[in-house]
Automatic annotation (TrEMBL):
It catalyses: uridine(34) in tRNA + AH2 + O2 = 5-hydroxyuridine(34) in tRNA + A + H2O. Keywords: Oxidoreductase, tRNA processing. Its EC number is 1.14.-.-. Belongs to the TrhO family. This is tRNA uridine(34) hydroxylase. HAMAP family: TrhO. The gene is trhO. The lineage of its organism: Bacteria, Pseudomonadati, Pseudomonadota, Alphaproteobacteria, Hyphomicrobiales. It comes from Microvirga alba.
C-alpha cells in the first residue's frame, strides 16, 4: 500500500487556535491519518500521512471547511508518497509558534520577504553579490544544499537570530536569499531580517521540496538529499524516497 504524505503550513492569525485542536484531531483520527500538526496564534504547520482519499479529504476540510472558516486560503502544500506509513501516531499540538524563532516582534502575517517560485530560483542564484543562506540545522545541511549556500551552523532554528547578528550586516549585505525544507523557516527568517533593516530579502516559495518536485535533475543546482522529519529520512528529485546514513540524527520536533 502506498501512503500520501502532505507537508503543509500557513502563517495566518488564528486567535482561536486552542479551540481548533480537538476538532482537528477528530477529523484526522476519523480518517486514520497520522503525523503531527501544530497550531498557534500565528498559524498552522505540520506533516501528515494517510490514504490518498483521507489526505484529500483533510485538505478539503482545511481549505474549504467550516473549522477554519476559509482562513487557510493560502495554504502551502507539498505532496509526496511513502511505501510504508512514515509516522507512528497522530499528534495535534498547541504551540507558542508554529516554527520556533523566539522573537515576539517577528510577524510573518504582516511582513515577509519576496517569494521566489522554484522555476525562478536558478536565475536568482546568478544575481551578483547575492548572499545565499541555508536556514536549516547543521545535520540537514550536511545531507544536501544548494551550491554556494552559507551554513549558519545552527542546531535549532531559534539560533538563527544569533547567526544574523554575528555574520550579517544590512549595510553590507544588500541582497539576501534564503531557503529551507518546505518554506516555513525561511519565510519567518525573512520577516525577522526585514525587521533588522535588511532591504532585499528573498526566499524560496515552497522550499527545497517544491524545487525538487518541479525542477528536472538536469537543470538542478541542488546537491545531495533533502532531510525530512519522518521515517523516510530523505527525499531526492521528484520527491522520491532515499535511504540515508543520517537516519539516526532524526529530530522529532518539526518546528525546529
Amino acid at each position: 500500500m502506498t501512503y500520501k504524505v502532505a507537508a503543509l503550513y500557513q502563517f495566518v492569525s488564528l486567535p482561536d487556535f486552542r479551540d481548533l485542536q480537538e476538532p482537528l484531531q477528530a477529523i484526522c483520527a476519523a480518517r486514520e491519518i497520522k503525523g503531527t500538526l501544530l497550531l498557534a496564534q500565528e498559524g498552522i504547520n505540520g506533516t501528515v500521512a494517510g490514504t490518498a482519499d483521507a489526505i484529500d479529504a483533510l485538505v478539503a476540510e482545511l481549505v474549504n471547511g467550516t473549522l477554519f472558516g476559509g482562513r487557510l486560503d493560502n495554504l502551502e502544500l507539498k505532496f509526496s508518497t511513502a511505501a510504508d506509513m512514515p509516522f507512528q501516531r497522530l499528534k495535534v499540538r498547541l504551540k507558542k509558534e508554529i516554527v520556533t524563532l523566539g522573537d515576539p516582534q517577528t510577524d510573518p502575517t504582516k511582513n515577509v520577504g519576496t517569494y521566489v517560485d522554484a522555476a525562478d530560483w536558478n536565475a536568482l542564484l546568478e544575481t551578483p553579490d547575492l548572499v545565499l543562506i541555508d536556514t536549516r540545522n547543521q545535520f540537514e545541511v550536511a545531507m544536501g544544499t544548494f551550491d554556494g549556500a552559507i551554513d549558519p551552523n545552527t542546531a535549532r532554528f531559534s539560533e538563527f537570530k544569533d547567526f544574523v547578528k554575528r555574520q550579517l550586516d544590512p549595510t553590507k549585505h544588500k541582497k539576501v536569499a534564503m531557503f529551507c525544507t518546505g518554506g516555513i523557516r525561511c519565510e519567518k527568517a525573512s520577516s525577522y531580517m526585514l525587521s533588522q533593516g535588511f532591504e532585499e530579502v528573498f526566499h524560496l516559495k515552497g522550499g527545497i521540496l517544491k524545487y525538487l518536485e518541479e525542477i528536472p535533475q538536469t537543470q538542478s543546482r541542488w546537491n545531495g538529499e533533502c532531510f525530512v522529519f519522518d521515517e523516510r529520512t530523505a527525499l531526492g528529485h521528484g520527491l522520491t524516497e532515499r535511504s540515508s546514513s543520517s537516519a539516526q540524527q532524526r529530530d522529532s520536533h518539526i518546528d525546529d
